[in-house]
Amino acid sequence: MSEEFELDTDDLARRMKGAISNLRTELASLRTGRASGSMLEPVMVEAYGAMTPINQVGTVNVPEPRMVTINVWDKGLVGKVEKAIRESGLGINPQLNGTIIMLPIPELNEERRRELTKVAGQYAESARVSIRNLRRDGMDQIKKAKADGMSEDDQKFWESAVQEVTDEYIKIVDETLETKQAEIMQV
Predict the structure, then answer these.
(1) What integer pLDDT is reported at residue 8 of this predicted model?
(2) Where do the Ribosome recycling factor domain residues begin and end (predicted)?
């Protein structure tokens, strides 16, 4: 092992975990036919002159398996929250009850389930690309060190270490996708 070169594989793994975390957040926003407060995370509301997440303008609850409610704290924002949900592409029709917005979650049909599995696949591919880019960064560092005099044995050692970390996180992406697709297709 060359004492001069030490690739920080922990940093590489930490950055790859970020890609996995992002993937899980994106997948949580996909509707599976069951109510979930996390499906509203990507929805932003124009509130007080700034784009704000829904959970910062009201309390999001899941009182029943097929219902999400939002108790909006400021009466003046109820219309804006309702509009943001309608325009979000979630395919949910909000119902107003004073300052409470109710979101009945309709049953998904087979065609919509297949579309959602494709979207989940796109999210997973995006995560794989991020992980591969991080792998490339690690490999570039190794090539630079090789040009600076690293031995071929050390180069092979570090390349295999980077590939091992990459394979581990690609496998996590695949397993996460498989789980989500099974959840979406479950009737």
Answers:
(1) 85
(2) 23-185
Where do the structural domains in the chain lie, given as residue ranges? Answer: 9-27+109-185, 34-104
Q: Are 11 and 24 in contact (CB under 8 A)?
A: no
Please report, as a single letter, which amino acid is at residue 160.
S
The yes or no reply on domain 34-104 and CATH 3.30.1360.40 is: yes
For 9-27+109-185, which CATH superfamily applies? Ribosome-recycling factor (1.10.132.20)
| Residue 158 confidence (pLDDT) | 92
* pTM > 0.70: no
- The answer to whether 173 touches 131, Cβ cutoff 8 Å, is yes
CA 122, 125, 127, 129 dihedral sign is: negative
